[in-house]
Design goal:
The chain is an alpha+beta fold and about 240 residues long. The chain has a single domain, classed as Dihydrodipicolinate Reductase, domain 2, CATH 3.30.360. The protein has six helices and eight strands; from the N terminus they run ααβααββββββααβ. Strand 3 and strand 4 form a beta hairpin. Helix 1 packs antiparallel against helix 6 and helix 4 packs across helix 6. The longest helix has 20 residues. The protein is globular and about 50 Å long. The protein starts with a helix and ends with a strand.
């Protein structure tokens, strides 16, 4: 989270030269709702994807070292949402990003509230709203904190919630979906939560990759594509234009 794509490329190169297995902790992919939605997409249950959105209204806990870095949301929080879109749909053709500062964060920064649009050659459009202000919830107003996602396809619709804004209270994520073949609402539920249960996924994937002598799906090489999207978002926000990847 503290590097750009060029620095990440050097880390990947060094691991390759040393013969070390590198697995990146993109743990949102192992949130139960996110992973199950990915299965629906890959099984073709939703048909051709048309529109996907992630809408976050939550207040992350920023760390002191971020003040030294001078950036906030995109490389810390939005990277998970951008990687989730890649996990669901693959690499976008171009991205557009717009930032404004977070009124609650006192140190100098650029990427407080982040808005993102990802364009795919298929016509699919993905939209992410990462609102880390959410209104004056810490300043005395009533709170309205949540993360919702929605995937619309030609043959089905999936929607869900991500439970981490309630942390440390254990609130599992949820998934509801319907299809033209089964036109009712299916509502699988889980007891596990993203924090900390989903961290088992990348850790287990690393150990299995070492044992089986194969590259993990969360390899450093795969994660470079996510880092490229993140860097493109910073460039897009700075230049006020879409960036092709």
């Amino acid at each position: 989270m503290g590097v750009n794509v060029a620095e990440a490329s050097e880390i990947v190169r060094l691991c390759d030269e040393a013969g070390k297995t590198l697995c990146v902790n993109q743990n949102m992919r192992y949130d139960q709702a996110v992973r199950s939605a990915g299965q629906l997409i890959r099984q073709g249950r939703l048909g051709e994807p048309v529109l996907a959105t992630i809408d976050m209204r939550a207040i992350p806990h920023w760390m002191p070292w971020q003040q030294r870095q001078g950036w906030v949301t995109c490389r810390i929080m939005s990277i998970h949402h951008l990687d989730t879109m890649r996990y669901w749909f693959g690499n976008p053709r171009r991205v557009f990003a717009s930032f404004r500062t977070d009124p609650r964060t006192k140190f100098e920064h650029q990427d407080g509230i982040g808005l993102y649009i990802l364009e795919y050659d298929s016509g699919l459009r993905c939209q992410i709203c990462d609102d880390v202000w959410t209104g004056p919830a810490r300043e005395g107003a009533a709170a309205d904190l949540r993360i919702n996602f929605r995937i619309e396809g030609l043959d089905g619709l999936a929607k869900g919630t991500i439970g981490w804004p309630d942390y440390p209270k254990r609130t599992p994520s949820t998934l509801d979906y319907t299809t033209t073949q089964a036109p009712c609402w299916h509502q699988p539920r889980w007891d596990d939560v993203w924090f900390p249960d989903a961290f088992l996924g990348p850790m287990a994937e690393l150990l299995c990759s070492i044992e089986q002598q194969k590259s993990p799906s969360l390899s450093g090489h795969d994660n470079l594509a996510t880092m490229e999207v993140v860097d493109a978002c910073y460039r897009s926000a700075n230049e006020h234009r879409a960036i092709e990847l």
